[in-house]
Predict the structure.
Amino acid sequence: MPSLMRYINIISRCGLLWRGDKLRDTGLKPGQAPYILALCRTPGLSQEQLARRIYIDKSNATRNLSALEREGFVERRQSTADRRVILVYPTQKALDILPYVRQITREWNEYLTEGWTEEEVATLKHLLDRVSERAATYANRKLDDDMDDDGQGEKP
């Protein structure tokens, strides 16, 4: 039997293709949608907090935020409380595209579960929630350990 990760990776990669098709003319890349969702939900996150929230390493977060800033989706500002911390805010362009990002996410979910009963969808969500919580437990512990090792970054 194939591993659970194989199934999850297939769904994830296919979801990126879906978002790529839908976002083609927006200036937003498929892997950047989680940044828009997180920043519009919680403006003013630090780069570190954002990376942790979407489970991306700091270097990938920095690279994607640079691209999002060039495209006019985010603005980065130095924290007045701690000059070492960079805070990230969505721009009006990000706020304007947010409903569309939510829509294509909803459409993908509907596509995946087309023909399913409400009970089947609820069961899948419940099981995926359990798996996600377990995965997040590891990731958060790992990120905490990494921060302790290098002595940098702030803990959420």
Residues 126 and 132 are 10 Å apart (CA to CA). The beta strands are 45-46, 74-78, 86-90.
